[in-house]
Amino acid sequence: MLKMPASDNKGGSGPRIGLALAGGGPLGVIYEIGALLALQEALEGVNFNDLHVYVGVSAGAANASALANGFSPAKICRTFVNNESSAFPLDPEHFLRPAFRLYMKGLKSIPRLFVEALWSFLRNPRDRTLLAALSKLSQAMPPGLLDNEPIDRFLAKMYSSRGRTNDFRKLKRKLFVVATNLDTGEIVKFGAKGNEHVSISKAVQASTAVPGLYPPVKIGGRYYIDGGVKKTVHASTALDEGIDLLFCVNPLVPFNAKLAKPNDIYGFKTLVDGGLPVVMTQTFYALIYSRMKIGMAKYAVDYPDKDVILFEPNSRDATMFFSNVFSFANRHNVCEHAYQTTRRDLLARKNELRPLLARHGINLRVDILEDKSLHFYSNSSVPPEVSKQAMLQNPVTNELSDTLDELQAWLDSKQSLTTPNEKTLRAVPGKSSVRPMVKPIPQATVVQSN
Q1: Which tens digit of pLDDT belongs to each residue from 231-244?
Q2: Residue 273, number of CB atoms within 10 A of its CB
Q3: φ, ψ for residue 219 (rounded to 5)?
Q4: Which of the residue ranges 91-105, 130-144, 179-193 would you say has the lowest mean pLDDT?
């Protein structure tokens, strides 16, 4: 956790609180959901659906945009982790579908590229080898392995549902989705002045376009890629909005094998024993993490009157490090792991966190953290009993919201049966597709002190 000294709020209208979520692939999405659940549960006085500003980068853009659009952490969990929303059914395979259209385009270009490469060699056989000439064929490789259009379509459906919007300009709260201009390397903040006309779902698609994995996203004649290419958290985007307290979540941390137990690293004596995937993962994590730490240190100088709290996995957390960052299959275990680890960390550091949070009118619920019976999910498909604090903060709102969304989805599915001139809606049958209301899921987080 990074702490910056803050003065008491002098505005008289309460502290201004923001949230900045970093990237991390599908695993990062799940980790952040766990973090948000725990924060919402343990922090009395914070409503993560009613913050002053939200900033999302890559995977964090999906969660930040959902929160800004009124989806509670519990509902995001039911949609992306438990896949229990009949209004927004999620098939993880849709987001891991090969970009066949790009493959076909590349294949069609091979004959032309081959002729051009051969001609280039024949023109300069002394200065160019045949192998160098044939390197031109690399242009036939697709700019991304997977199709990211489903991201836009799925989120557009979510944000076009009851009471929500896919338009930055119509949001009740400030939302910034960060991407990178491929041709210039410049940071672009969708939702900021000049870029607020882009749909939220398309902005998230651009921000999550991990180079090599997903193709760049074309918006207004320009191509955009992952927002984490230049900066990891983009906390300054939120701090520039005049907030007093900023919560940051970063799912990816390099692994310190010296601090881990031997069994935690799968019997490896060193990470090199894990082969190229482990070596590349550690290298990538180390690069983005060191960049983030430099940025955080700079924020302490540039924003001395702000409080910034960073939540992230522990550097000896083998479960997070060795999990496939692009896999949905392990999402329940990752969420539960994050939930329990964070509860222990919050409880262990209560004396440090309590006064900092109290300055902003927030109470750390130690009684909830000490309740060992709480879990992120149960073995059944029905979420477990909600904690007392969650019930106080959201009495039945989440339950009613789920039911209304599912009712809206049912009505939308029947709309094609209704002619434009009909003025009345069809009655819902006695046995509708709407599920009985269920209690919201408890909440979760991971906090790391350095």
Answers
A1: 888 999 999 999 99
A2: 12
A3: -135, 120
A4: 130-144
